[in-house]
Design brief:
It is built from two helices and seven strands; from the N terminus they run βββββααββ. The chain has helices at 83-107, 109-114, and strands spanning 9-13, 27-32, 39-44, 59-66, 69-79, 122-129, 136-142. The radius of gyration is 15 Å and the shape is globular. The chain has one domain (6-146). It has a seven-stranded mixed sheet with strand order 1-3-2-4-5-6-7, covered by helices on one side.
């Protein structure tokens, strides 16, 4: 897993979202190019489904509230591709998620400056798979853990 290169991160804010608001309802879609290693972060009120390809290697995240407070919910689709490919996808997601989280947090940096209380918010990741081994919901630290 590499460190984030801010020069390779492109940002797109959709209508209804500014660099600082809203908090609840704010959704992130992170995609990438295998050829150029560029990352593309879309921040909106909806996920950027038009950026999602059949490969399904995007990272989706959004702010949610539960009885124990606000948290960053992250979703990745490990899949329904059979044991071998699911295992490979799980390994790749786990290796690349720290970079993806850095990209989201760095890319939305102005938002975090206005809402510094979110730096201590927990990150929960849903690994979605038909294989029970890879179908997991895991705590991955706090937002601050992924700040550049």
């Amino acid at each position: 897993m590499g460190k984030l290169d801010p020069e390779k991160l492109s940002l797109d804010f959709k209508p209804g979202v500014t660099t600082t608001n809203p908090m609840i309802g704010r959704k992130y879609t992170l995609t990438h190019s295998d050829k150029t290693a560029e990352l593309f972060l879309t921040v909106g009120l909806q996920f950027a489904y038009d950026k999602i390809t059949s490969i399904r290697d995007e990272v989706l995240a959004e702010w949610k509230i539960s009885s124990w407070g606000i948290f960053l919910y992250v979703y990745v689709y490990v899949g329904n591709y059979g044991p071998t490919i699911n295992a490979m996808r799980n390994t790749i997601f786990r290796r690349e998620l720290p970079l993806a989280l850095e990209a989201i947090i760095y890319g939305d940096g102005k938002f975090f400056k206005v809402h510094p209380q979110l730096m201590n918010s927990p990150i929960w990741i849903q690994f979605d798979s038909t294989e029970p081994t890879y179908n997991r919901f895991e705590y991955w630290g706090t937002v601050m853990d992924y700040r550049l």
